[in-house]
Design brief:
With 114 residues, this protein is α+β, with helices and mostly antiparallel strands. It has one helix at 8-32, and strands at 42-47, 51-57, 64-71, 76-80, 86-94. It has one domain (8-102). The chain has one helix and five strands. A five-stranded antiparallel sheet has the order 1-2-3-4-5, covered by helices on one side. A hairpin with a 5-residue loop joins strand 4 and strand 5.
């Protein structure tokens, strides 16, 4: 079975939409928990050769944590295994899904496999 590979421009567009969705999840969580002591974390991306690392940055710029990794060839969403690499035990979702993979992640990162 061959893996589907997407046009890099399409991946970039969907990646930007995915990052907006992740930011919305974080903002919703902060509003739901009524956190007023600081601003919500901001989502940024670190681009690599094979993966895009989606990073959650605290408002003061002091702490950065990996939210998820996205495979730049096929749009697969992967749970973080460490700062440098995704978890090897499976794909959590895909940014080309109708909901951008929103049902497979939360405000902290990718959900565990069931």
């Amino acid at each position: 079975m061959t893996e589907r590979v997407y046009n890099p421009c399409d991946v970039q567009d969907r990646l930007e939409q995915y990052m907006e969705m992740v930011q919305d999840k974080i903002n919703d969580y902060w509003a739901r928990m009524d956190f007023t002591f600081a601003m919500p974390n901001k989502v940024t991306v670190d681009m690599g050769r094979k993966y895009a690392r989606i990073v959650s940055n605290d408002a003061n710029g002091g702490q950065r944590t990996v939210h998820t990794f996205v495979n730049l060839l096929n749009g697969d969403i992967l749970k973080s295994g460490s700062w440098a690499a995704p978890q090897k035990n499976g794909v959590r979702g895909n940014i080309f899904a109708d909901d951008l993979g929103a049902d497979r992640i939360n405000e902290y990162g990718a959900n565990y496999l069931r």
